[in-house]
UniProtKB/TrEMBL annotation:
Keywords assigned by UniProt, alphabetized: GTPase activation, Metal-binding, Zinc, Zinc-finger
Keyword Zinc: yes
MF GO annotations: GTPase activator activity; zinc ion binding
Keyword Glycoprotein appears in the UniProt entry: no
UniProt-recorded name of the protein: RAS p21 protein activator 4
Domain C2: 1-105, 116-232
UniProt cross-references to Gene3D superfamilies, sorted A to Z: C2 domain, GTPase Activation - p120gap, domain 1, Pleckstrin-homology domain (PH domain)/Phosphotyrosine-binding domain (PTB)
Regions that span the bilayer: none
Family annotation (Pfam families): BTK (PF00779), C2 (PF00168), PH (PF00169), RasGAP (PF00616)
PANTHER family the UniProt entry points to: RAS GTPASE-ACTIVATING PROTEIN 4-RELATED (PTHR10194:SF4), RAS GTPASE-ACTIVATING PROTEINS (PTHR10194)
Organism: Ictidomys tridecemlineatus (Thirteen-lined ground squirrel)
Sequence ranges assigned to domain PH in this UniProt record: 430-537
Residue ranges of every copy of the Ras-GAP domain listed in the record: 261-483
Length: 667
């Protein structure tokens, strides 16, 4: 096999793929990875479960490669692409097939805990000690770890398990190539465990930590060698016995929360996950729990469960503005018309109708029919407005309902659910803000290269920032919302003009570009900055620093740096926005409210933990034991205990000083 330097690949077709989209179809494409490195992506075949690709490639393989994997995914415009399945060929498998492989290969499901990659650098040694020898494990660094976060990186840390004890390294933020250089020691006792387990994890604030891979070391072999150092390839965890998911915690939180507080807790949790961009994942977990205890699809979300309350909060928080914009004008018109509607025959009020001198009383049948017609007209207008507004509906709501539809279809495969959105897909999203701005000339090659002070019409939607000569112009240029990296003010001296802002974004080739836009006044400037920051607040790759000046000649006007692509000299202010009722959520505040609630029911949670563990005497989280709980509820209680200790250890802040000047405002 070592002589083989290349591999011929022909991806022909697929058949009987599962439907991943709401229309009962999928948009499949293939990705080929060599040792988790993507090297090939086929075209997407739209709306089919039996795609034909017929694409050929010649791949050069390193002599030390481990496996070639073929992933089939469903492309999704609103959320992450769904993984349909994969086929994997190891190097040994390919070596046993001198004539290659031709035929159909069965797709297997993808377990995220098996999708590990990278290596970890360890130094392991047995050192003499009194009364017993000690096992020393130095966790030095890791490389090529799997990116688990939305920013394309991970926040890795390492857990070292031996003989019932667990120790952890610090967390390295936003890195797939972390360095720790931390050392841990364990006593080597007679009859102790024969395996040392080193696990790499991605730390997450609000969801469960993601597994990155593990290495298991035979301690008996280390006895003989006394010392071993090198790079160890991370392996998947097949057992999953030491991990628990948040799905086990949700029913417990629901059970320990009184009915009158369930809505409040659901709202706090929903806002917390929504602020972190994880609302769809949180609600999907609740969907599965709700469907597991539902016998009929039409009874979903009719109880006082945490799922029902969370769904109610989700629609209010994420969809209120959308409904106001779409249904508000129709509801206002209903009230303005003040048409009499009554469908109950026992409550019908018969009125005179006809012209002057020819009055006659309406019959009860006429009143009922007229009321029915009026009601049908109102409902028709509401439904029509909703159907036309599919592109105006927030992306997170569309993605969440699509996931709900999939879960319901999995749970009730025989039920019929039909929804025709075909005629609504061509409609554009309504503008969040629009108006006339002036573009300043820049030297970049982005779409905003233009003469100085050129006047154009701008429109900001939840999908893009576009501009054209006039509001009715059919030809326009746009910047995709997902490509925006910052929206900040520009120093007045940069253009000798006031009220100039800059929109920093990446073009289709991934190159950084900057658009300089001038507003009419400071209020308009702040309104545009606020709108741009709000619609892009969850973008990946947001900048932490920027240059408030411009790059003119060979240096920045603000800090005189000569590196055009270097780190900015001022911090960005992506969270500074105008106060509005639909402002971005403060997930830090929601986390504090959830923490306060959990403290209030901590005693009940501890009792539940003792009940589940079968130990009615011992404390749920022994203080100072040095052992990390492995069950989800125990981990939650440990977090509560750590937070409480951290709060009690924090020194009180200095008293606020008396201000020397006061400003009186009316708001």
């Amino acid at each position: 096999m070592a002589k083989r330097s290349s591999l011929s690949i022909r991806i022909v077709e697929g058949k009987n793929l599962p439907a991943k989209d709401i229309n009962g179809s999928s948009d499949p494409y293939c990705i080929v990875k060599v040792d988790n490195e993507p090297i090939i992506r086929t075209a997407t075949v739209w709306k089919t479960l039996c795609p034909f690709w017929g694409e050929e490639y010649q791949v050069h393989l390193p002599p030390t490669f481990h496996a070639v994997a073929f992933y089939v995914l469903d492309e999704d415009a609103l959320s992450r692409d769904d993984v349909i399945g994969k086929v994997c060929f190891t190097r040994d498998t390919l070596a046993s097939l001198p004539k290659g492989f031709t035929g159909w290969a069965h797709l297997t499901e993808v377990d995220p805990d098996e999708e590990v990659q990278g290596e970890i650098h360890l130094r392991l040694e047995v050192v003499p000690g009194t009364p017993a020898r000690r096992l020393r494990c130095s966790v030095l660094e890791a490389r090529d770890l799997a990116p688990k976060d939305r920013n394309g990186a991970s926040d890795p840390f390492v857990r070292v398990h031996y003989n019932g004890r667990t120790q952890e390294t610090s967390v390295v933020k936003k890195s797939c190539y972390p360095r720790w250089n931390e050392t841990f020691e364990f006593e080597l006792e007679e009859g102790a465990a024969e395996a040392l387990c080193i696990e790499a994890w991605d730390w997450d604030l609000v969801s469960r930590n993601d597994f990155l891979g593990k290495v298991v070391v035979n301690v008996q072999r280390l006895y003989a060698a006394q010392q071993e150092e090198g790079w160890f390839r991370l392996q998947p965890d097949q057992s999953k016995s030491q991990r628990g998911g948040p799905g086990q915690l949700i029913p417990i939180i629901e059970e320990t929360t009184s009915t009158d507080r369930r809505q409040e807790v659901a709202t706090n949790l929903l806002k917390l996950f929504l602020g972190q961009g994880l609302a769809k994942d949180f609600l999907d977990l609740l969907f599965q729990l709700e469907l597991g205890r539902t016998s009929e699809a039409n009874t979903l979300f009719r109880s006082n469960s945490l799922a029902s309350k969370s769904m109610e909060s989700f629609l209010k928080v994420a969809g209120m503005r959308y409904l106001h914009g779409v249904l508000g004008p129709i509801i206002d018109r209903v009230f303005e018309e003040k048409k009499y509607v009554e469908l109950d025959p026992s409550k019908v009020e018969v009125k005179d109708v006809g012209c002057s001198g020819l009055h006659r009383p309406q019959t009860e049948a006429e009143v009922l029919e007229q009321s029915a017609q009026t009601l049908r007209a109102h409902l028709g207008a509401l439904l029509s407005a909703l159907c036309r507004s599919v592109r105006a509906c927030p992306a997170v709501i569309r993605a969440t309902f699509r996931q709900l539809f999939r879960r319901v279809r999995e749970r009730f495969p025989s039920a019929q659910y039909e929804l025709d959105l075909q005629r609504t897909l061509s409609l554009q999203a309504p503008p969040v803000k629009e108006g006339t701005l002036f573009i300043h000339r820049t030297k970049g090659k982005g779409p905003l290269t233009s003469s100085s002070f050129k006047k154009l019409h701008f429109s900001l939607t939840t999908e893009a920032l576009s501009f054209s000569k006039t509001p009715s112009s059919k030809k326009s240029t746009l910047i995709k919302l997902a490509n925006i990296r910052a929206a900040e003010k520009v120093e007045e001296k940069s253009f000798s003009s006031s009220h100039v802002m800059q929109v920093i974004y990446t073009d289709e080739a991934g190159r950084p570009q900057t658009a300089y836009l001038q507003c009419k006044c400071v209020n308009e400037l702040n309104q545009w900055l606020s709108a741009l920051r709000k619609v892009s607040v969850n973008n990946s790759g947001l900048l932490g620093t920027y240059h408030p000046g411009v790059f003119r000649g060979d240096k920045w006007s603000c800090c005189h740096q000569k590196d055009k692509t270097g780190r900015g000299c001022d911090k960005t202010r992506s969270r500074v926005t105008l106060q509005e009722w639909n402002d971005p959520l403060d997930h830090d505040l929601e986390a504090q409210l959830v923490y306060r609630h959990l403290l209030g029911v901590e005693a009940v949670l501890r009792e539940k933990h003792r009940e589940l563990s079968g130990d009615t005497e011992a404390d749920a989280v022994p203080a100072g034991s040095g052992e990390a709980p492995t069950d989800p509820l125990g981990q939650l209680l440990q977090v509560l205990q750590d937070l409480r200790e951290a709060h009690s250890a924090s020194p009180p802040g200095p008293p606020p000083s008396e201000p020397s000047r006061l400003l009186e405002l009316q708001t």
